Amino acid sequence: MESLRFVLPQSEIPTHWYNVVADMPSAPLPPLGPDGKPATPEQMGAIFPMAILEQEMSSERWIPIPQPVREIYRLWRPSPLVRAARLEEMLGTPAKIYYKNESVSPAGSHKPNTAVAQAYYNRQAGIKRITTETGAGQWGCSMALAGQMFGLDVRVYMVKVSYQQKPYRRSMMQTWGAEVFASPSNLTQTGREALSRDPDNMGSLGLAISEAVEEAASRADTNYALGSVLNHVALHQTIIGLETRKQLELAGDWPDVVFAPCGGGSSFAGLAFPFIADNASGGRNGKSVRLVAVEPTSCPSLTKGDYAYDFGDASGFTPLMKMYTLGHDFMPPGIHAGGLRYHGASPLVSQLYHEGLIEAMGVPQLATFEAGVMFARAEGIIPAPESNHAIRAAVDEALRCKESGEAKTILFNLTGHGHFDMASYDRYFSGELEDFSYPEAAIKESLQHLPRFG
Amino acid sequence: MESLRFVLPQSEIPTHWYNVVADMPSAPLPPLGPDGKPATPEQMGAIFPMAILEQEMSSERWIPIPQPVREIYRLWRPSPLVRAARLEEMLGTPAKIYYKNESVSPAGSHKPNTAVAQAYYNRQAGIKRITTETGAGQWGCSMALAGQMFGLDVRVYMVKVSYQQKPYRRSMMQTWGAEVFASPSNLTQTGREALSRDPDNMGSLGLAISEAVEEAASRADTNYALGSVLNHVALHQTIIGLETRKQLELAGDWPDVVFAPCGGGSSFAGLAFPFIADNASGGRNGKSVRLVAVEPTSCPSLTKGDYAYDFGDASGFTPLMKMYTLGHDFMPPGIHAGGLRYHGASPLVSQLYHEGLIEAMGVPQLATFEAGVMFARAEGIIPAPESNHAIRAAVDEALRCKESGEAKTILFNLTGHGHFDMASYDRYFSGELEDFSYPEAAIKESLQHLPRFG
């Protein structure tokens, strides 16, 4: 009986993260302060520990994973690489399809890979509490879990509409010991002002970020943690691709093409970046791996955005970053892949895309759910709506192989499970799920508001 | 870095299930028909395929697992055996604690181990559709998943109150292609009669069983599937303990005591029965493994029930089985471990308990949630309320070791995750969760209604 899952022993948990900066054709463009000059570590030191800022700026190829972080990774890592043999059969494709199963973490997604590292470095720096924001709840859960592992208090500002609609994500965070507040709250100046303007304000991710950052900046024992976009987050996620490379060797295979969902960009970076090292050194047997970021057609930062300096948050609070952006005040349609509703893409992902080292594509919402249901019926696991974007792309590639007769090897990132997204599946089955049209006018409008310098 | 997870390669998925009947001091007592005479295979053949009835009556020690069943098991098996090192540290115990993680199946529990086998045998017998019932939804999900894997239509009668309160379990079943009906429905005579008596009838497990059985009995292409209690279900679940034994050898360890939650008894049977073979042949190094079934104090069939012939369902529709029972019309308090709210225990588990080969204990609801939260904070995974019963027992044993200084090895069955039970955790955190008192009067009353013959 052929093995479908390729599992590494825990002794094979990577000892180093891979820093793609070392293999980029040109150095990353720095973040800029409000004055248009490069942001200094001192400016960012108010909310991040120095070890993380060093990683943010590093160009070292290999960065050691601290032993206590590897020890926590043991709770669910190495995650399995799985051959989707039943999906191949269902599609009748000659292609081979593999997926890296990041849904196996206790929080249900890849997010704890960086949350655990960030908790560790903050703990090392003497920090007692972490503030962060969460929308749908994936990141808040991951930070709650990670804080518990290193004895940090975690305070999560959860967008009020999600706080009310997703009580179970909130209960998960509480199970791991975190405090969760509906944002806007009356705990911060930002929150109080928002509530005084509109007592019924249901919150936004931008507002929740502002509240979390305000609390972190105002207390010496408190730092802030972000779950995507930044370089150190992408770095920590490379453990996904590093494990995958070893597992592919076990399977005796190598991908022609890699797909991962792309919102802020951390799950794409995590799986794809380690293959850039291979491509940079000429590929395997002279063959480069195609690396494809898959985004929603309704929030198409890479495929339809400008490559420009823009704020990381909606309210213009963060440093400016050079990235593909739809404009920081672009409000994406209410798609169910909440983790992909971000106006920009990570600066590293953006620069690699700009320089032609990676590709990007958009897929519409209904087609992603169709692919997710197909995957669930073939492979069992019910995927997160974010993951369905990568699955759609993989399925379409496999169907093209069926047409052409090519036996390509396809790899995708199953970034999380859909156990807390069943309401979205319900809407899909009842025919209530919409396909949003491409929000051309809204993007055009918000791109008018890009900061003018930089 | 020490390994905490012991993972077998897929080639080590067991080739045979273990039938504990071969090692029982006396033969199992047969089920009886309504006339008090042993039920015949012909009587049961209306709703079960012959291959399953043969397993139900077999006394062969090893029963081959069909290759197509092993191939589906590959989607998540072998499941990990995990050393709960952080829990040990949190408790400050010299004991070693291991858990078998059955929460990794796509449906989130051990239930698919038998659902997949039952789907296969029904498919082999030419059956086109399966009917079953579900309360909280664990079993319905598992049967929906298994039916999809073998191309069977699955129709689930879901207790109406759960159908309304647990829409996400329903969406999961639909994602796997099953049809789900609120029970009582107007699809069966039983359902129509119940609705005509009371149009607002919110259903019960007994009623849902009756609807599923009625449909299966009335159609030649349709069979019925049950998720616990019966011998063949216990048999299929022994894959849990068989894998665990191999994994303990990898870990270089052997348990002193094994805990598993016990409702109908299938998860206990699954983990514990294979150790009965060891105990029967004198134990390892002359040491027997203590095997402890953990039940809720509010539904204490083994610890407070009578050992008697009783119906398997509330309405007296099934054959009579000799088992520890609280009386078939005992209505357990509304504890959140829905899978343990059953009036009896599997006949095999009951007989082994009666003959002193296994032990049983009861734990109260609040203490189980306290242990579950402790486990989640140490090990990450949020357990199902059913699993929390085994965790409570394991934690208490580890704390006794702390007192005595003994370095025992403790093993328990993590039967499922709690992703669809967060409302129960919510109630626990908000202080709304009750500890029910021992329902002595209700049990005394229902034991009066035991059938008088047999």
UniProtKB/TrEMBL annotation, chains A, B:
It holds the Pfam family PALP. It comes from the Bacteria. Pathway: Amino-acid biosynthesis; L-tryptophan biosynthesis; L-tryptophan from chorismate: step 5/5. It is an enzyme of class 4 (lyase). SUPFAM superfamilies: Tryptophan synthase beta subunit-like PLP-dependent enzymes. Gene3D superfamilies: 3.40.50.1100. GO terms for cellular component: cytoplasm. The beta subunit is responsible for the synthesis of L-tryptophan from indole and L-serine. This is Tryptophan synthase beta chain. The gene is trpB.
